[in-house]
Design brief:
The complex is a heterodimer of chains A (364) and B (500). With 364 residues, chain A is mainly alpha-helical. Chain A is built from 15 helices and no strands. Chain A has one domain: Amino acid/polyamine transporter I, CATH 1.20.1740. Chain A is globular. With 500 residues, chain B is α+β, with helices and mostly antiparallel strands. Chain B contains 16 helices and twelve strands. In chain B, the strands form three sheets. In chain B, strands 1-2-4-5-3 form a five-stranded antiparallel beta sheet, with helices on one face. In chain B, strands 6-7-9-10-8 form a five-stranded antiparallel beta sheet, with helices on both faces. In chain B, helix 11 packs antiparallel against helix 15. The longest helix of chain B is centred in the last third of the chain and has 39 residues. Chain B is elongated. The N and C termini of chain B lie far apart (84 Å). Classes of the chains: A mainly alpha (364), B alpha+beta (500). The interface between A and B is medium-sized, with 37 and 27 residues.
Chain lengths: 364, 500
């Protein structure tokens, strides 16, 4: 079993955590999180989205508190807190969660492409090429993964500008009145939005790869805040653009708003948007598969290269198995739920256990 | 395996096999241009041997022989004192003697069986005169270019950099060609690790011939399986001087008019040296045009294929009319049409490059105008695509580094295939491959995409936009220079009545 230490030459600068956090969050979720969130919270959904986002700032704070004390990664944390066997089992669950995220992202993206661009896209061939691309990136080490995260944020950033088009047609009075939903409805809305925020738990795995990890805290918070800002803006535009009934029937609200974008040389902007989205999806799969591979490498004697290939095959096969819309929706729901509990229950739990253990350890 | 290599090594090093000097001389006499004669005087005589094709015979007759014959020679030790030329040596080391005589030294022996001899340098120095740069010609600026002679090239750099910190580390590479290679760097400015990396990689080279610095480039580059050049080659001594001052390392090789520069980054391939000769606003706009041209050159034909194969809906009504009417008589799918045109442009370029200049121009006219127009009229290609392909070929030639423009044109073909496979989605996937590949590349161990990734704001001052010279007062971070400050800018602002 390899230790959590990382050679200095493989480390990346702390400011890249901004992109690592932001790029793993923005993925397939943002294409259609509006419907799920607005189902319960209606025109207050943007408040749910904002509140869910800000609450996660606290969770990121907790993650940093835990990791700064641990000076390792999730695997070593589990081992120190729960011992070799229980800790190892929990680590395996976490690895399974990372793989599940990769599957969700890949499958959902292929679904979007099938529905919006190529109805007869061969998911096996496309998946293989995309995962080969992921492998090509991962084989360059964490430096390249962080680079892909950087370009995956910077290059498609122009898509934010396309949110201007629906503004021309939006009815902003739809947002009023504020707070006309109960707290429970808003909570449900926030829960629905959480899938689109997930993924930053991969911080647990790559923090040892950051130079002066402590300094990266503000970058992590900053990356997350950018996500919150974008999601809230997208949510507000969506509420203004769609009526509640219409939104309930629109699975990919963001893509639908792209349809009205019009420029002198481009109509039907969603083709460009979905194609560019491949650049957003890539760091998502890269980081999650990387985290899973790193976890296996840390748990066993298998090198990360040898761990990654089977993971990619698993991702390809299991994402190919989900064929129908309902099963993909189910997959999204389960990953979402798993992530929700991971973030809101498990991270605070880890924090408390670590705190108690350190107190007990000191007194004993 | 090792034994086999060893045997090969032995075979080629004839001095190892020959036992003594007389035997060596007998061996050398197999060549017709190896001359020898005996100078007989009253009480002493000496023998003189040399290659007439390597030795400056006038110099030998005017400046060496008179000193040897004025008084009888008793011992070999007298020769260095008598001949007023530096570098005269006395040796009995066969390997050294052989090496020197092959480089134009004259052998002097006192008797026919002596095992020791004196070696007098008298090389003939035949080199092309310094001429104008042809590949990297600039309207303003120096008109000197490197030539094939290593000494001349070092001279061209040294006269521009008259400081003792300029070091020229020399080594010989190639078992047969014994090519002299020089690593130039500024001591105390260039990063020691970079210098050592270059030296180490040069020393590790095991080949029999180095005919040009381009060969060296392939042997010392970081990733040999990448179509992207990771070192810049230049024929301009002023550019070499300028990068030396930045803290880079330069490799010169004898027989090659091209110097190699490293470590380098991707953006440097798109900055011409002329950018430093003009005002920063003009220079920056030229750079922006070039970057646009490169993206245009790589992406436009694939995007054409992608939209016309899959996404007709993407094009607005009015524009679609133009496209459809230009394509309505074309029997081929867009991908074949594009590949046909791209290939014919490549064909023209290759034919033009292989032919003498004057014929090349004719080929350009015949190919460009006649074939282009004819293929549109024959209904093989649409004229819109003809415009696009011609423009993107033109755009690829804006790259200031010749090697890079070849790479750019090559990159287009995988993009075309992906575009045909999955439309715009394929273009993005291929683009992601390109980015991942560039992210993995390194130049002498330093990241190739710097200053974009890792993002270094300070180095952006001379990347996509060239900021004014007074901002260039620090050496680029990626070179990890030992002395980061170039100069302290003095700013004096002229004031007029408005400021008073």
């Amino acid at each position: 079993m390899a230790g959590p230490e990382v050679k200095d030459q493989y480390k990346v600068s702390p400011f890249l955590v901004f992109y690592l956090v932001h790029s793993v969050q923005v993925g397939v979720g943002v294409m259609g999180f509006q419907r799920i969130s607005a189902k319960a919270a209606g025109n207050d959904a943007w408040i749910s989205v904002l509140a869910a986002g800000l609450s996660l700032n606290v969770i990121i704070f907790l993650i940093y508190k835990i990791m700064m004390k641990e000076k390792g990664d999730l695997i070593s944390l589990h081992q120190n807190l729960f011992g070799k066997w229980l800790g190892g089992c929990l680590s395996l669950i976490a690895i399974g969660y990372f793989i599940a995220m990769a599957i969700t992202v890949l499958r959902t993206y292929i679904e979007v492409v099938q529905v919006w661009m190529f109805p007869d896209l061969n998911k096996w061939i496309f998946g293989t090429v995309l995962l080969f691309l992921v492998y090509y990136c991962l084989s360059g080490g964490f430096r390249v993964v962080a680079g892909i995260a950087f370009f995956g944020v910077v290059l498609p950033f122009y898509l934010v500008l396309t949110m201007v088009f629906p503004l021309f047609y939006g009815q902003f009075r739809d947002l009023l009145p504020f707070f006309n939903h109960s707290f429970m409805e808003m909570y449900e809305g926030a829960k629905g939005a959480s899938l689109s925020y997930l993924g930053f738990t991969t911080l647990f795995m790559y923090l040892p790869f950051i130079k002066d990890a402590e300094k990266s805290h503000r970058w992590a918070q900053g990356g997350h805040l950018l996500t919150v800002l974008i999601y809230t803006l997208v949510m507000i535009t969506t509420i203004a653009f769609f009526s509640t009934e219409q939104l309930d029937k629109t699975i990919w609200a963001t893509l639908t708003t792209w349809k009205i974008a019009e420029m002198p040389f481009v109509q039907r902007f969603e083709y460009i948007g979905i194609a560019s989205w491949a650049l957003v999806i890539l760091p998502n799969i890269c980081i999650t598969v990387w985290a899973a591979g790193r976890g296996i490498r840390r748990l066993s004697r298998i090198s990360q290269q040898n761990a990654t290939i089977p993971i990619l095959i698993v991702v390809l096969i299991s994402s190919g198995v989900f064929a129908r819309r309902e099963s993909i929706d189910l997959l999204n729901q389960y990953t979402s739920k798993l992530g929700f509990y991971f973030v809101y229950v498990y991270v605070p739990f880890l924090f408390v256990v670590q705190y108690i253990k350190s107190k007990v350890g000191r007194s004993g | 395996m090792v034994k086999k290599m060893f045997r090969w090594l032995k075979k080629n090093h004839s001095p190892d096999k020959l036992k003594n000097l007389p035997e060596l001389i007998r061996n050398l006499q197999d060549s017709g241009d190896f001359l020898h004669h005996e100078s007989k005087q009253q009480d002493s005589s000496f023998f003189i041997y040399y290659f007439k094709t390597l030795v400056h015979e006038t110099e030998l007759n005017d400046h060496i022989l008179p000193y040897l014959v004025e008084k009888p020679i008793k011992t070999l030790e007298e020769i260095p004192e008598r001949v007023p030329i530096p570098g005269v040596i006395i040796s009995n080391d066969l390997k050294e003697i052989c090496e020197k005589v092959m480089r134009g030294f004259v052998i002097i022996r006192l008797n026919a069986n002596a095992k020791e001899c004196a070696l007098i340098p008298s090389q003939v120095k035949k080199a092309r005169a310094v001429t104008q740069p042809e590949v990297e010609f600039t309207v303003v600026g120096s008109k000197e270019a490197f030539v094939e002679s290593l000494d001349t090239n070092i001279h061209l750099v040294r006269k521009r950099l008259p400081v003792h910190e300029l070091k020229a580390y020399e080594l010989t590479i190639g078992k047969l060609t014994n090519t002299k290679v020089v690593v130039l760097y500024l001591d105390g400015i260039a990063n020691e690790e970079n210098v050592n990396t270059v030296k180490q990689r040069l020393e590790d080279i095991k080949v029999d011939q180095i005919v040009d610095s381009s060969v060296l480039m392939q042997l010392i580059t970081d990733d040999r399986n990448s179509p992207f050049p990771q070192l810049i080659d230049t024929e301009r001594p002023d550019r070499v001087t300028s990068v030396l001052c930045e803290g880079k390392v330069v490799v010169l090789s004898d027989g090659s008019p091209q110097a190699l520069i490293g470590p380098t980054t991707l953006v440097e391939f798109f900055s011409a040296f002329e950018d430093y000769f003009v005002n920063w606003i003009v220079a920056s706009s030229a750079r922006l045009i070039r970057i646009f041209a490169i993206l245009f050159s790589i992406l436009v034909t694939p995007v054409y294929v992608a939209t016309l194969t899959y996404h007709y809906e993407l094009i607005p009504k009015d524009l679609l009319g133009t496209l459809v009417s230009s394509r309505q008589r074309i029997p081929l799918p867009p991908i074949l049409e594009a590949i046909f045109l791209e290939l014919s442009i490549e064909l023209l370029r290759e034919a033009g490059a292989r032919l003498p200049t004057k014929v090349g121009q004719t080929i350009g006219i015949v190919g460009g105008i006649v074939i282009g127009t004819a293929s549109v009229e024959a209904g093989l290609t649409s004229n819109v695509l003809l415009i696009i392909v011609a423009l993107s070929a033109l755009a690829s030639f804006t790259t200031p580094v010749y090697r890079m423009s070849n790479t750019i044109r090559l990159t287009r073909f995988p993009f075309l295939l992906f575009a045909h496979l999955w439309g715009l989605l394929g273009v993005t996937v291929c683009f992601s491959f390109l980015i991942a590949h560039l992210l993995k590349l390194k130049s002498l161990g330093r990241p190739f995409l710097e200053p974009l990734y890792p993002l270094r704001v300070q180095d952006l001052k001379d990347a996509i936009i060239r900021f004014p010279l007074k901002f260039q007062n620090k050496r680029p971070i990626h070179l990890q220079s030992e002395d980061t400050v170039r100069f302290t800018p003095v700013t004096k602002k002229e004031k007029n009545d408005f400021h008073e």
